[in-house]
Design goal:
binds manganese (II) ion, binds pseudouridine-5'-monophosphate, 329 residues, 11-stranded mixed sheet
Amino acid sequence: MLQRASALILKRGIATFHSRLCKSGSLFRVHPSVSKALAENKPVVALESTIITHGMPYPHNLSTAMQVEAIVRAEGATPATVGVIEGEVHVGLSSEELEHLALCKSSLKVSHRDLPYAVSKGLSGGMTVSATMIAAHRAGIPVFVTGGIGGVHRDGENSLDISADLTELGRTPIAVISAGVKSILDIGRTLEFLETQGVCVATYGASKNFPAFFSPQSGFTSPCQVCSPEEAAQLIASSLSLGLQSGVLLAVPIPEEHAAAGQLIEEAIQAALAEARAKGITGRDVTPFILKMVNELTEGKSLQANIALIHNNAKVGSQIACALSKQMT
Ligand code: PSU
Ligand code: MN
């Protein structure tokens, strides 16, 4: 009896799944504005959505997501925010869909490994850098802007807590523009792991110092440096022309005027790390926990800096996407 009931539920689940699949012929949905830009060889910038669902509190998450899209448009590119809505991977979200993700309290944090589950269950969620890289590449978008990427966690050599963002960078030919890696992570080991994965890492700007998200310097040096959108585009175009299947990581330092709170934020990070350890917080929950606590301890200063650096990344990333599309046509 019980077996028959669960077989029925399974059958119904598969039927719903099939109707979603058949509607569009694919579980990937590319927004018409994005497919039009791609068909016309115009620049497109992919954007992730975990920053909306897990990186910032409401309403800052929604306003930032909308501002970032506006910055991309102002620079002459088309934004494509990537997220999972009721089991479909959307490349390019409408403002209603952005709002749905920003307001939804139960949305998943969808990394590479979570994609099959989110799709099979018809769930909604924010997509991390690793999952966004997959969808953006599938859609044919070579440039992707985010705030910060995941990395090797401190003590990662024992816990093996190494973000899937790094392995994805090793096997997906996309350029990711970020403000580097947060000091909650082990930056030295993150750079070593990226080297092993064959990822070309460059700092964008006047210094070769690899930035640490809230701070323009981590004390570690990037293997490469690019000083203009054109130079960055040449690097990306070369990687694509070589047929390398690995990505390029461009690290854009936080603008000096927003880095002032760096020391205060660094102290809050240390306190939050200790609290996370004491509370036994692990895995996918570590980053959201730390971001929330750091924001509380700095009375919103870390959030302000976070928003400022994302705006800057969106501007620089869009300029790079525009330069790349000129070079590729
Ligand atoms: N770093 C941030 N803010 C974020 C993230 C990282 O400063 O929102 C998100 C990104 O989506 C990144 C993900 O891809 O966290 C990495 O998570 P994990 O370490 O669980 O792989
Ligand atoms: Mn992890």
